[in-house]
Specification:
The complex is a heterodimer of chains A (306) and B (133).
Chain A (H helix, E strand, L loop, with lengths): L1 H9 L3 H12 L9 H6 L6 E5 L6 H14 L4 E7 L8 E3 L14 E7 L11 H10 L5 E4 L10 H4 L2 E6 L6 H5 L9 E4 L7 H12 L12 E4 L8 H15 L2 H26 L3 H9 L5 H9 L4
Parallel strand pairs in A: 1-5, 1-6, 2-4, 2-5, 6-7, 7-8
Chain B lengths: L6 E7 L6 H12 L3 E9 L1 H11 L3 E6 L4 H14 L6 E6 L3 H9 L4 E3 L5 H11 L4
Parallel strand pairs in B: 1-2, 1-3, 3-4, 4-5
Classes of the chains: A alpha/beta (306), B alpha/beta (133).
């Protein structure tokens, strides 16, 4: 059955891929046994993250990039994440509105994902979704995050190349030197380049971000101006993303990403095991009654003792 | 009913530009706990079917006020079935004459919600009728 699925994915059939993504999103236990093979059958697609504040033009820029990569003959996969309601678990997934011109293109596969309670800008299963698109032969794979503020940097541990999209009104120079989102950028696209102030914002960013030093080993990000609605600057952006692919795959960068992915997986796994510990309820109760501190409780649950 | 959210694609096929109703429904279903993929205005049945296929939705909700429902709705159903989405529920909302409702249902549209239907009633209908395999 597994072999059949991987072959179906590789054939480019869309329905099996869509069904698989649903099982992945739902945390279906049948996914676990096929994960190793799903990974092994990947083609090593370039995983590109697109993040930035709400309304900065991420979806429109993704749409323009899809067009550019289609002209270059590439098959493009997209995962677009939008937030889920903390109250009802419902969500409006609206990234498709800007991308419908590619809906019927057989060489573009676009899937909307709700974050389902995750706060880092992605859904917990987005990385497996990316592996599925890779096994299906899409390259590049674009991952558009939830509209991000300052610290939703989860994307940087999944994507090989992270593009932060900002609008010209992003704020003053101090915004540019704050830690967080801009810090994880490999490329910053100052979008809505037709608005007044875009070039100035790009100059400010360049001035403030060019002097990375201290303990930082990353190269400063490339700052570019784009106008997603007209396509201005999009060819250059696609070139810059492709040019970054090699840098992203240098052993140290790949190792850093791998380490943070495994740390995250460990945290999920350990959390799951602790919750499954039969002593869970009793231990939580003892913490609630202040008989036990949370760290000791966590250690006991992990060690399998209550 | 499983406990994962119901996924619905809401689209406006054809040429009318009135999307307030579709947006109000999208918002309302979000509050009912649905994951709503909103695709916007002026969609062809092909675009809708292709999007529904990639999104693997449980429901396709079509809002139509232009009068072209007898052409666009059955065509959308047909394209979904061609893509193997036999179980997906297709529902429509808008101004649709009673005389056409029977014909649309015969063509595979599961339900038609006219003006005045409450969002709660629509959500309940979907919860009761979604088929998952």
């Amino acid at each position: 059955m597994t072999h059949g699925l991987i072959e179906e994915l590789a054939s480019g059939a869309r329905r099996p891929l869509a069904r698989l993504l649903t099982r992945i999103e739902n945390g279906d236990p049948s996914i676990r046994p096929i994960l190793p093979e799903l990974f092994a059958s990947g083609h090593g697609a370039h995983v590109v993250g697109i993040t930035g504040p709400p309304g900065s033009g991420k979806s429109t820029l993704v749409n323009a990039l899809i067009g550019e990569w289609r002209r270059r003959g590439k098959r493009v996969g997209i995962l677009a994440v939008d937030p889920s309601s903390p109250y009802t678990r419902g969500a409006i997934l609206g990234d498709r509105i800007r991308m419908m011109e590619h809906a019927a293109d057989r060489d573009v596969f676009m899937r909307s994902m709700a974050a389902r309670g995750e706060l880092g800008g992605l859904a917990a299963t987005t990385w497996i979704g990316a592996a599925a698109l890779d096994a299906a032969g899409y390259d590049p794979i674009l991952i558009e995050t939830v509209g991000a503020g300052q610290s939703e940097v989860e994307i940087a541990r999944l994507a090989e190349t992270t593009v932060v999209v900002e609008a010209p009104e992003m704020g003053d120079e101090v915004q540019a030197i704050k830690a967080g989102l801009l810090e994880v950028a490999d490329i910053v696209a100052v979008n809505k380049g037709d608005r007044p102030g875009a070039d100035r914002a790009a100059r400010q960013l360049r001035a403030m971000m060019s002097t990375a030093g201290g303990r930082v080993e990353r190269s400063p990000p490339k700052i570019m101006v784009t106008t997603a609605t007209s396509g201005e600057g999009v060819t250059d952006l696609a070139d810059a993303i492709e040019a970054h692919r090699a840098a992203a795959r240098e052993p140290l960068a790949a190792r850093d990403r791998a380490a943070s992915q495994v740390r995250r997986a460990l945290a999920d796994l350990a959390g799951g095991r602790a919750v499954a510990n039969p002593a869970w309820d009793e231990t939580i109760q003892r913490v609630a009654e202040r008989q036990l501190d949370p760290l000791t409780a966590a250690e006991r649950l992990l060690d399998g003792v209550g | 009913m499983t406990d994962t959210p119901i996924r619905i694609l809401i689209a406006k096929p054809g040429l009318d530009g009135h999307d307030r109703g579709a947006k109000v429904l999208a918002r309302g279903l979000r509050d009912e706990g649905f994951e709503v993929i909103y695709t916007g205005l002026r969609q062809t049945p092909e675009m809708i079917a292709d999007a529904a296929e990639q999104e693997d939705v449980d429901v396709v909700g079509l809002s139509i006020l232009s009068g072209a429902h007898m052409a666009l709705l059955p065509r959308t159903v047909e394209l979904l079935r061609e893509r193997g989405m036999d179980e997906v529920l297709v529902a429509a909302g808008g101004i649709i004459p009673d005389a056409d409702v029977t014909k649309l249902k015969a063509a595979g549209v599961a339900e038609i919600f006219g003006p005045g239907t409450s969002i709660g009633a629509i959500a309940r209908y979907f919860r009761e009728h979604v088929r998952r395999t």
